[in-house]
Automatic annotation (TrEMBL):
<keyword id="KW-0288">FMN</keyword>
<dbReference type="GO" id="GO:0046306">
    <property type="term" value="P:alkanesulfonate catabolic process"/>
</dbReference>
<feature type="domain" description="Luciferase-like">
    <location>
        <begin position="14"/>
        <end position="249"/>
    </location>
</feature>
<dbReference type="InterPro" id="IPR050172">
    <property type="entry name" value="SsuD_RutA_monooxygenase"/>
</dbReference>
<dbReference type="GO" id="GO:0008726">
    <property type="term" value="F:alkanesulfonate monooxygenase activity"/>
</dbReference>
<dbReference type="InterPro" id="IPR019952">
    <property type="entry name" value="F420_OxRdatse_Rv1855c_pred"/>
</dbReference>
<keyword id="KW-0285">Flavoprotein</keyword>
<dbReference type="InterPro" id="IPR011251">
    <property type="entry name" value="Luciferase-like_dom"/>
</dbReference>
<protein>
    <submittedName>
        <fullName>LLM class F420-dependent oxidoreductase</fullName>
    </submittedName>
</protein>
<dbReference type="Pfam" id="PF00296">
    <property type="entry name" value="Bac_luciferase"/>
</dbReference>
<keyword id="KW-0560">Oxidoreductase</keyword>
<dbReference type="InterPro" id="IPR036661">
    <property type="entry name" value="Luciferase-like_sf"/>
</dbReference>
<keyword id="KW-0503">Monooxygenase</keyword>
Length: 321
């Protein structure tokens, strides 16, 4: 496989929610700083479900706005909850945003995991096995609709979803369709589903990243797919500062102990070193997980003093897991 350029991206997960203007300001700061992409989480509640100040926004509504209000960065969700939207509707939403952006959209999708969030908004939350079954059927439908040729019809009869003779599918700008990102830490079904559908496999947070990539590679080989056909990515919560006071202030807003335990909290050199470790483990894409969305100077610092040091060397296929 040809050598793959390393990508450093920004992932927004606001601790207390956000207004669209706040999200747009962060996306434009990401674009100005030179990053490859701006992604957001797909949540209606924050890490603390008791946080009465949390301001929810719909993921794809805001991404549609960003599609028109930015010019260069790629845009997406990491990762969306498959429980939130019917597959045909989601295929249309993403295709619409892709057309609006001129072909800059990516679809990150997972089973959904935050039960309290579903309860709070009246969204059904099936048991784990059923969520995986629905997730797999959704991907069949979404990619099937996107790949449909002129004059063809698409039908799907599954256990949970049914599509009857769709001859007018949504048409994204990208061909054959926007990249599909599948992420998670499950050892069996997640890598198996990703092997079938993913253009990028995200190793999630915590645990042995190298082993997760290896499990994904074996799942690809089991169905005759070249593992290097897909990108591999990692999430890195980050709190970077030039001074100890800046580092402490930015680290204090991280959302949970899990995030802090897996974060890079320190100077630009320390963050750069941590990213190098993720590359060595096989990641060719890293999402910098940002919590304080009003701290635009944080994005500028990462762009000026981290990005130039990690986005210069290509990644050889043989280095990827």
């Amino acid at each position: 496989m040809a050598r793959t350029e390393f990508r450093l991206r920004v992932l927004m997960e606001p601790r207390h929610g956000a207004r669209y203007d706040d999200i747009l300001a962060l996306a434009r700061a990401t674009e100005d700083a030179g990053f490859d992409a701006f992604f957001r989480s797909d949540h209606l509640l924050g890490v603390d479900p008791r946080d009465r100040g949390y301001r929810p926004t719909d993921c794809w509504t805001t991404l549609g706005g960003l599609a028109r209000d930015t010019t260069r960065v790629r845009l997406g969700a990491l990762v969306g909850a498959a429980t939130f939207r019917a597959p045909g509707l989601l295929a249309t939403i993403v295709a619409s945003a892709d057309e609006m952006s001129g072909g800059r959209v990516e679809l990150g999708l997972g089973t959904g995991w935050y039960e309290r969030e579903h309860d709070a908004f009246g969204i059904p939350f099936p048991p784990t096995r059923e969520r995986f079954d629905r997730f797999e059927e959704q991907l069949e439908i979404i990619t099937g609709l996107w790949r449909l040729g002129e004059g063809e019809e698409f039908s799907f009869h599954g256990k949970h979803y049914r599509v009857d003779a769709n001859a007018t599918p949504p048409r994204p700008a990208q061909h054959p369709h926007p990249p599909v990102i599948i992420g998670g830490s499950g050892p069996k079904r997640t890598p198996a589903i990703a092997a079938r559908f993913a253009d990028e496999f995200n190793g999630a947070l915590g645990g042995d990243l190298r082993e997760r990539f290896a499990v994904f590679a074996r799942a690809c080989e089991a169905i005759g797919r070249d593992p290097d056909d897909a990108r591999r990515s990692a999430v890195l919560p980050v709190a970077c500062g030039r001074t100890p006071a800046e580092v402490e202030r930015r680290g204090a807003v991280m959302g949970s102990d899990l995030m802090r335990a897996n974060a890079s909290i320190g100077s630009p050199a320390q963050v750069t070193e941590r990213i190098a470790g993720l590359r060595e483990a096989g990641a060719d894409t890293v999402y910098l997980h940002i919590y304080d969305i009003h701290d635009l100077e944080h994005i500028a610092l990462l762009g000026a003093e981290v990005l130039p040091h990690v986005a210069v060397a290509p990644v050889a296929a043989g280095q990827r897991g």
